Fold this sequence. Notes:
The structure holds two protein chains of two kinds.
Chain A (H helix, E strand, L loop, with lengths): L12 E10 L2 E11 L4 E5 L6 H8 L7 E6 L2 E2 L4 H7 E4 L11 H11 L4 H14 L15 H13 L5 E5 L7 H18 L2 E6 L2 H7 L2 E6 L2 E6 L1 H12 L7 H9 L9 H14 L1
Chain B lengths: L9 H4 L1 H4 L12 H22 L2 H24 L9 H19 L1 H11 L1 H6 L5 H29 L8 H29 L2 H17 L12 H8 L2 H14 L5 H27 L1
Helix pairs in contact in B: 3-8, 4-5, 4-8, 5-8, 5-9, 5-12, 6-9, 8-9, 8-13, 9-10, 9-12, 9-13, 12-13
Amino acid sequence: MTRPTDPPPPDAVTCAGLVHTFGETRAVDGLDLSVRPGEVFGLLGPNGAGKTTAIRCLTTLLPVRTGTVSVFGHDTTGERMAVRRLLGYVPQQLSADSALTGRENVALFARVFDVPRRERGERVTQALTAVGLADAAERLAGTYSGGMVRRLELAQALVSAPRLLILDEPTIGLDPIARTGVWEHINAVRAATGMTVLVTTHYMDEADQYCDRVGLMHRGRVRALGTPAELRRGLADRRGTDTLPTLEDVFRDVAGSGLDSGGGFRDVRSTRRTARRVG
Amino acid sequence: MSEAPAAPPAVSADPARTAALLLTPPTPRPGWRLLPARVAALCAVELQKLRHDRTELYTRAVQPALWLLIFGQTFTRIHAIPTGGIPYLDYMAPGIIAQSAMFIAIFYGIQIIWERDAGILNKLLVTPTPRSALITGKAFAAGLKSLVQAVVVIVIAALLGVGLTWNPLKLLGVALAVVLASAFFSCLSMTIAGIVLSRDRLMGFGQAITMPLFFGSNALYPVSVMPGWLQAVSKVNPLSYQVDALRGLLLGTPSHLGADFGVLALAAALGITAASSLLGRLAR
Lengths: 279, 284
């Protein structure tokens, strides 16, 4: 029971004035963001909007030189190990090791998160079961379909019971059925564990359907923030129309012109590489 | 790619029973136990991969077998190289064991670049694993892979009649020398990977340094017959210290085991430090 004098619990993620540059390019340009505990938060934007760079700062992969980033109150610069113990991370690429079985892939992450030997087997089984891969656990990951690999990566992230699950474009390149399958498992896991989920995606329809709140990112900053319904209603009100616009309309409205200019060669190449591996 | 229909999400069915452990974060290991735990985890991965696919083990055995069969047997007849009274095939066998282990380790950086491209490296870097522990784990995993290869070459040498020791303590020393040297060479490779950042460039560097390392060592001939400048190269070449240790342990020839193991351990430590400091470049 929370008493009135208790300090409010820290946000799952707090970014304040985050700037990250690559040479002359300001990939993230003054990002302010709060993700509340327990919500599914979608960070949306086109290639080159700065989503992945922001995620990499948050996951301690990139140093934070300007601004501050914290995860459940732990600073990502000063308390790296504490932050990493709270995270489950699924990068944009298909990152399961194709030369290992599903079980071995998950067991590796159980080991590097210090799961003791006596409970390792059971915990790995529970993670694989949670994503519907218990029957395929002994097969090499190289024989999995794209959707199965994504679910395997989800199991790898879940095995350490993270408080914040970060998914970078989890459904990129998947067919609609596999996309739905991945999202169903994300939602089921969230419902069972109460963990916070931060997801980046290009797909506005997915964000509309599955995210509690979204931040629309463009040129390194969040340009609009709210629930999908709030953002759509807000645009309808501004336009004075009864027909609800889509989230994509909202995005076009806040980004204005210049939507086609984002996305460097590396972004597109990385996206295509992932899509090709997914099939 | 389409996939088989997914099983219904099991967590929602009975969360308390099926996912109880997934609600409890594991207790962090104390600091001093972290490094051996990470090394063991990454070595286990290497063994699992070898168990699933042994092709590389067999194909990589061809070259050392040819060195021993053709070069070794021919030069044994020529008697051109002073070996201190032992057959040349015996003399060169430890050199070929060291060479085949080095060839595996020196291209280990390619694997880390592949892991970078596949997102595996980033995912490991977001675990509670300090960069130095990750590199140490990779270095010893490379050492283990090289050791398995070395065992294959030792068996080939024994089949060809090389008079090797079967003293378990000495064989343990051989294993240690192979692991330490391979840890160094894999770190050299991962250091170059951290500088050049691409597989193609690393392949070029790997090709460029393996032969000078091999011919600039005592693997095929004693240091005393080398010209002065090559003797200087051999003096700073960890492969020479590895071969000296292997020769002393396997054949019982005069060697400098204390200095050999000291240099190999120091080289491995320096390699781990250098590769760890450059790992961040691969993560960007």
